[in-house]
C-alpha cells in the first residue's frame, strides 16, 4: 500500500472517530439542555436532540468525505504527517464551528423560552376594575 492510501485510511479513522465523539458529547449534554428549554417535555427534547445529531453527522461526515482527496502524492513519512495535520486541523476547525453553531441555536431557543416565561404575569388577576365614568 502506498503512503497516500495510508494517509487516507488514518484520516478517515481519526475524522470519523472525532465526529462520533463530538456528536455523542453534544447529544448527551444537549438533551439535558433541551429538556430544560422545552419545559420538561422529554419526548420533544429527545426528538429535537436526535434531529440535531443526525444533521451534525450528515454535515460533518459529508465534509470529511469531500475533503478526503489530496492533489499531492505522499512520498515519505514526513508527507504523511504533513497531510494528516492539515486535513485533521481543518476537520477539527469544522467540528468546532459546528459545535459553536449548535450551542448558539440552543441558546437562542433557551432565550426565547425565557422571554415567553417572563411575559406571563407573576400572579393571576383576582378581578377587574370597572372603567371610570368620566373616561
Describe the structure.
The mean pLDDT is 82. The longest helix is centred in the C-terminal third of the chain and has 42 residues, at 77-118. The chain is 76% helix and 0% strand. The radius of gyration is 25 Å and the shape is rod-shaped. The chain has helices at 3-37, 42-66, 77-118. It is built from three helices and no strands. The chain is mainly alpha-helical.
Low-confidence stretches: none
Radius of gyration: 25 Å
Average pLDDT taken over every residue: 82
Number of strands: 0
Largest sheet: none
Question: What is the beta-strand fraction?
Answer: under 5%
Give the overall shape, derived from the CA principal axes.
rod-shaped
**Helix percent band:** over 70%
| Helix/strand structural class | mainly alpha
N-to-C order of helices and strands: HHH
How many angstroms separate the termini? 91 Å
How many helices in DSSP terms? 3
Short description:
The chain is mostly helical.
Brief descriptors of the model:
mainly alpha; 3 helices; 135 residues
Task: Map the helices and strands.
Elements: H1 3-37, H2 42-66, H3 77-118
Helix pairs in contact: 1-2, 1-3, 2-3
